Amino acid sequence: MTADSRDVTRLSALEASRQVGTGELDPTDLFDAYRGRAAVDDLNAFTWVADGPPAPVAGTPLGGVPLGVKDLFCTQSVPSQAGSRILEGYRPPYTATVVDRLAAAGAPLLGKTNQDEFAMGSSNENSAFGPVLNPWDHGRVPGGSSGGSAAAVAAGLVPWALGTDTGGSIRQPAALCGIVGLKPTYGAVSRYGMIAFASSLDQAGPFARDVTDTALLFRHMVGDRDCCDSTSVDYPTRIDLPTARRLDGIRLGVPAELAGDGIEPGVLAAFEDTLDLARSLGATVAACRLPHAPHALSAYYVIAPAECSSNLARFDGVRFGMRAPESTDLISMYTQTRHDGFGPEVKRRIMLGTYALSSGYYDAYYGRAQRVRTKISDDFRAVFDDFDFVVTPTSPTVAFELGAKTGDPLSMYLNDFCTVPMSLAGIPAISIPNGLARPPAGGDELPTGFQIAGPAFSENRILAAAHALEQELGFDSTRVRP
Amino acid sequence: MTPVDLEPVIGLEIHVQLLTRTKMFCSCALSFGEPPNTRTCPVCLGLPGSLPVVNERSIHLGLMIGMALGSELAPRSIFHRKNYFYPDLPKGYQISQYDEPLCLGGDLDGVRIHRVHLEEDAAKLTHAGSTGRIQGSSRSVVDFNRGGTPLAEIVTEPDIRTAEQASDWLKLLRATLRRLGVSNVNMDEGSLRCDANISVRPVGTTTLGTKTELKNMNSFRFIERGINAEIARQREVIESGGKIVQETLHFDPATDRITSLRSKEEAHDYRYFPDPDLIPVAITPRMLDDARAAMPELPAARAARFEAGLGLTADTAHQLAFRGELGDYFEAGLVHTGHAQQLAIWVTGELVRHLGDADPASSPLQPAGLAALVDLIAAGRVTRTAAKDVLAELVLKGGDPVAVIAALGVGAIDDSDQLAGIVATVVDANPDAAEKIRAGNRKAIGAIIGQVMRETKGRADGSEITRLVLDRLGVGD
Amino acid sequence: MIDRADVLHVARLARLDLTEAEVTQMTGELAKVLDHIARIGELDLDGVPPTSHVVDLGNALRPDVPRPSLDPEVALASAPAVADGGFAVPSPQA
Ligand SMILES: [Mg+2]
Ligand SMILES: [Zn+2]
């Protein structure tokens, strides 16, 4: 029972933190209200929920608004399993930098959220701890790999959450669950303590119900570079809370390569409606070209598996995690542990990546993929000479049914084609709710996402544009709550 | 097959633990015999989510090594991952350098350097439940204290032709690295480790034969013996019509036997690729200036200076230069005396005879004291013979050479009348020798001198005795 | 095109035990994905430099200053097997 008779979980995170600041809201009540909802989670969104509220800390900017954290962020003494059997029950001796920073800013850990194993997947069906269900339709996937975070925010089990995006793992589940998700510029957020999938692509980012909360959480994720992460950078500016309501003078580029073929008609129609809306807010909309984008998926499915095959070599049954009980000799300790501990998708990518790096194939695969990456960055650079943003549908489909694509890895991979190019270029992109669309086979309408991508470190401008569209779109992100 | 003369071709790969305070990629202090697993953190344990950050001091020391070896210092170098599984390798890959190392090329005393790169050391794997040998134990235990210690790997071109040359050259390298202060370079403790790539080829040909890599030679003696054993093995294989197989070999110093180290199942494919967790190291002018400013005079240059500038023999100059602490002692003494050659002889001779491998800096006999003793010898105040006893006393207890000479009563007899008296007595007691000398047989004087020395307990100067003997006998000089 | 032998070789490199059925399935799946990926072979990439880091970064070096290490109990806490203060593994040569 909360002392507050209001439903405080309907407050935005910004409003909740403001009320904590003025004394209208007790942060312990707020935490307990969310904890109560998370504890009865029927979406399998959480893999761990805090026992009770943390000791309140006065005077923090975020005021104690609780945070959901994707399971692959290390949290000291709290299970951090990255959706994998091989890390079942693993409690690390340290906490990821970004989680520490957010806790210090007043966003304490409410729970760890379910995910595709080691962030490999687009449906959250690759979790050793079971699939996450989409709050809009429990027979459908929430997207992945940060599906637990997205579903938990959409269902109001937590006001905001951390995810990670390697090829779309924040943006796509945000789209499929009808919330906001931001993939920041590569290097903006520390990766220290984030269990790596593909080091040169992984970025942590925020999920929230609206653009303003997204900006607020993101503000406290960036700042001075983390000296424990060689690839992290000083964020050049402070993150503003967006106020824009117009798009006057903003030039939106629509790449035919990412906004035509392969997009479900309902998703495409919603996307085009929003382009009209943008025009009505003062934006200009024109076609642009990303000529190498059709090769982005190929490059991605070389680079990411190659890096993952090496990053996952440390799961060897020696220092942490599981070891196959029957291993008596060293080789079988490795091979059995890794056979039993990794799921099929992880094994597939380790195999693919090992193959791509192996003797005689490096130049044809990894070497070429790194060159394609250069071309894709060049494509974006050229587009941003003429446009402020590139806009696309976030995901070519609405949420699909559980099991629909598990038998065909390639079709699952192809699902990422709108989000992967930005990951390869390391540029920021946001997905905002873009209304609802009916699935091709009929049934209830489901959320779609609108993606806005900009040059490196353009997050403030992206958030401003997203805010202007959001105000006009008027999507109610609390409507699927149980 | 007709026997042909086969010539060995040898290249060395040397791993040197760098003398930083912390590990290569994390802030754990380096370990020197601490209890197991007391110097670890998420990074050097390879825990999920941890990330490496390069220790700037390792780059500084690497640049100094490159400068000492005359290498080209890469303006930009890259860390790669070398992927393989082993329990002493926590991440399943070693962070090393591959095609863009810190230093390229170079030369030390006629042996060309191929490259110098930086990497991280493996952890220590102890084979429990046995005598410590690998064979026969069923369980091993990993201690990650050493894991992540910065290493410089120095690779030579195959310019070495004999085991002895390999060992001598490695001694020069060790002296050079010790002089740089970049490492303890101690083979017993593993801060200097050497592998050899060995092949043989018919004399007069230039193509390289198939090479083997010989590991585990943890002393200079073993290096010579190991290389010689492998050369002998290869000669035997070829002379009996066989072929050398490229493999990694293990030298057992107890038996002088060479065994193959890797099991056949092990396919080598390290799948090198640039470590995406690290960014390229860009060498700035400031880093180069800092390294240059830290460079001491190196042994080879120092030996040349001693030889050419001070007139020391090549041998003495090398002894002083290659044991830098002797050179330092010598140069400290040189401030106090002009007799450089004599001082050098006393340092490398008597002083080393007493101190062995100990650092003379900590001897009670300070450089100024030895310099004073050398001056006293030159001034005829003490004879060479007596000075050896004085030095023995000074090395033991220190003090002022003049006082020690007095206390031991070994000062040279500088009273000519007193010495003339002794000479007279000895000459008179040896009429036969006296007669021979008068007859022109100068050799006969030796017996007289010897006896006078005995009478004076070595306190008299030989040439002075000769003068007095001839004087006594009325023979002109 | 990737075949059974390649899959077995790669599985050995990756220290992954695969069942007979997994080898067969993996061979088919990887072949399909590699076939798609092979399209990057069609691009003319002569003279194009590879990108390993998307953001231009200066040096990221760390001062050589020690920080506290983990307590050994903490370091060993998650180990599947411990002996003599270390991480126990089957001997490499057993
Ligand atoms: Mg090496
Ligand atoms: Zn460490």
Task: Give descriptors for this structure.
heterotrimer; A: 482 residues; alpha/beta; 13% strand; globular; C: 94 residues; two-stranded antiparallel sheet; 10% strand; flat; binds zinc ion
Supply the helix-strand structural class of chain C. alpha+beta
| Backbone shape of chain A | globular
Mean pLDDT of chain A: 96
The biggest chain-chain interface is: A-C, 71 and 52 residues
Instruction: Report Rg of chain C.
Output: 23 Å
Gyration radius of chain A, to the nearest Å?
21 Å
User: What strand order characterises the main sheet of chain C?
Assistant: 2-3
Q: Name the shape of chain C in a single word.
A: flat
List strands and helices in order, with pairings.
The complex is a heterotrimer of chains A (482), B (477) and C (94).
Chain A: H1 13-22, H2 27-39, E1 46-49, E2 67-70, H3 97-104, E3 109-113, H4 147-154, E4 160-165, H5 171-177, E5 180-183, E6 203-208, H6 211-219, E7 251-255, H7 265-280, E8 284-288, H8 296-311, H9 330-341, H10 344-357, H11 363-386, E9 389-393, H12 409-414, H13 420-425, E10 429-437, E11 446-453, H14 459-473
Parallel strand pairs in A: 2-3, 2-4, 7-8, 7-9
Antiparallel strand pairs in A: 1-3, 4-6, 5-6, 5-10, 9-11, 10-11
Helix pairs in contact in A: 6-14, 8-10, 8-11
Chain B: E1 6-17, E2 54-55, H1 56-68, E3 72-73, E4 76-77, E5 79-83, E6 93-97, E7 103-104, E8 107-108, E9 111-120, E10 124-128, E11 139-143, E12 150-156, H2 163-180, E13 192-202, E14 212-215, H3 220-239, E15 248-252, E16 257-260, E17 273-274, E18 281-282, H4 285-293, H5 299-310, H6 314-322, H7 324-334, H8 340-355, H9 367-378, H10 384-397, H11 401-408, H12 416-429, H13 431-438, H14 445-456, H15 462-473
Parallel strand pairs in B: 14-15
Antiparallel strand pairs in B: 1-12, 1-13, 3-7, 4-18, 5-6, 5-17, 7-9, 8-9, 9-12, 10-11, 13-14, 15-16
Helix pairs in contact in B: 1-4, 2-3, 5-6, 6-7, 6-8, 7-8, 7-9, 8-10, 9-10, 10-11, 12-14, 12-15, 14-15
Chain C: H1 4-13, H2 20-37, E1 61-62, H3 72-76, E2 82-83, E3 86-90
The complex binds magnesium ion (MG) and zinc ion.
Residues 23, 26, 28, 40-41, 43-44, 148 of chain B line the site of zinc ion (ZN).
